[in-house]
Each structure stands twice: as C-alpha cells, then as structure tokens.
Amino acid sequence: MNVKKKGLLAGVLCFMFLFAFPLYAETEDESGVWEDADYSSMPEEDSESAAETPAAPARKEVKTESATTVGFAFTTLPEFKLVFSQSFKVPVLRFNDGFFGGNNIKFGMKAEVAPVFMTFYTDTVFTPLPLIELDTGAMVGTGWNIGEGPSITGIGINERDAEGKTSIKDQGNANFSGTFLAAHFGAAFQFNLAAVVRGSDWNHILFRTYHKMTANAFTGADKNDTWFIFNDYGENRNGWKYNANYLLGYQMPAMPVLNMLAFLFEMEKYLTPIESDKDWGDTLARWDFGFLINLKFNENITLGILPQFRLFRNYANFEYPVRIFKDFNGVNDDRYFQDRGKPEGWSFQFYRVAFAFNWRVK
Prior knowledge:
Elements: H1 3-20, E1 65-75, E2 79-91, E3 104-114, E4 117-129, E5 132-143, E6 145-146, E7 152-153, E8 155-160, E9 166-168, E10 180-192, E11 204-218, E12 226-229, E13 239-251, E14 258-270, E15 286-296, E16 301-313, E17 346-360
Antiparallel strand pairs: 1-2, 1-17, 2-3, 3-4, 4-5, 5-10, 6-7, 8-9, 8-12, 10-11, 11-13, 13-14, 14-15, 15-16, 16-17
C-alpha cells in the first residue's frame, strides 16, 4: 500500500473515531480571532457570601446548553476558511454558591474548510472553578496544493531541490499525500476584576493565560522530514510543540457594539529538535503580538478583528517568503529554509490582520 493510500485510510479511520466520540468545545486555540477562541466564559461577579445570605438560595435549574455556530475567518495574507461547530455545555459538580455555581464540561465538534485544506476537531473543556479551564482534544485533517511550486501549499514534504530552493516532494502526487493528526492538553487561568470589585459596569478588566502541549504528526513524513500544512512556512516536524498566550483586556458591557479591547501575546516553540536545528534557529520560540477588537452586534452575531505583529528572525541574506503571493510586498525568497544560516537578532514587523465572523444559529 503506497503512502497516499495509507494516509487516506488513516484519515478515514481517525475521522470515524472522532465523530463517534465528539469532544470539542468553543475555546479551541490560540489567537482569539483566527482560531475562534471564546472569552465569554470568563467569570463576572461572585454571589453574596453565606454570611451575607441567611438562607441558602434556591438551586437553579440544571440543564444542558447547546450551540450551533457558523463562522467565516480570513486574514490579509490572504487566508480564509469556513467554520461549522456544534457544542454542548453540561453542568457538573455545581453547588449552591456563586464560586462553584457555574461548573461545567463542554463537549462538541468543529469542521473547517479552506481552499487548500479541510480539518475536523474534537475537544472537551472542564471548568472546575471560574478561574480555571482544563481541556484536551484532537484534530485530523488533510490538504492539497494549488499551482506549481510551493505557492499555495496545503500539504506536502518540504525539501531542497537541485538549485537549493524550497520544493514540495513528489509534487505531482502530493495532494492528499497524508493525514495531519494532532492531540493536545492544556490549561487556562482567567480573571475578571468585576468578580472581586462589584457595583459598576466599567470594571471588567480581564486577564487570561492559556498553555498547551500538542503532539503533531503527518503520516506522509519520516522522523527528520519537515512539512507544509495549511499553507504555512513548511517548518513543521512530527513531535511535540508548546504554545502559550496571554490576554489583557477591557470589556465594556455598556457599549452598544464594541464589546472588548485587548492585547494578545502568543508564543510557539518546537520541543523535538534534531541536531541540525541549532544551525537555522528552530530551537528558538516564535512570538506574535496583537490588538484584539471584539464587536458584538447582538447575542448571536460577533466579529473579531486582530492586527498582528511578529518577531521575525534576521538572517544575513534571507527574508521569510509570503505564503501565497511571492512578490507581495517585494518579498521573493524561495531558498530552502535550513540553508539560511544562524539567526542574527530579531526584527519586529507587521504580520497580518485577522478577522473572524461568527453567527450562532441556535
């Protein structure tokens, strides 16, 4: 059985497994816009303490909540995708007080379709306290390529051609040449000043930090191969990756549309380097910085806007190529990335603006 057939078979089996055990919830990934993170579950304010309340409050009705959402996300690179999700929030371990009254587990699933890839996610998020979220989940996806060369790359092995340039291995047969698999576990700490200082609509200062460990695998790649997925830079490798993000924001419930403003800092670091990585900087963390604007038109329709900047590594004679249009902004560097030499510092540059429109159907 060739690699292509093995990859498709693995994808079908994984999709069937994930569909049978849906474990996805809306708080899914890092960026808050492109990854559709949901900050609506952050704590707001505590109920009165037992000392202030002589009689125990009546227990609220406990029921499972569900949400069906359709979304459209795009960036200025350009990138774009359609997102379909279904989630369920199940109350668990709830007590008659404000601190434990919102405990729940979210289950669900999400599918994404883009011009060069399609994915299916599952995840489960457990909220044992208003300040903490614990989650675990998995993803399966595959892709294809558009055009000659690595111009729009949904999937494939990144290799050096005879001229020292980046190329897709066996490009004629690279479409659907494997399946991308990922499994993660993570934890978030979140805080809203309004939970401590009550009595005003203008004291919703938010802080949230999320940390995640992810095991990535591309079935068409060997141990030391690097590969493209979802039209990225082609620097991925099978193994573990660590992600972290930090959000500091201000929520304005009295504003008619502008719901939240926030600063967002994101970090990514590969944890399974090979010996040659030190020669081209893959052991270094990657940092993005953004300013998140969340617009809420009503209870069901939101729009997130995220201008982002990135700390790009400086190399003597190399610039990161733009992932779709090589001549965009004058960048036209298609040399193989492991030949660029050691990094010589950093440069803070504009990266992209990401937009995410979400409509909660029911």
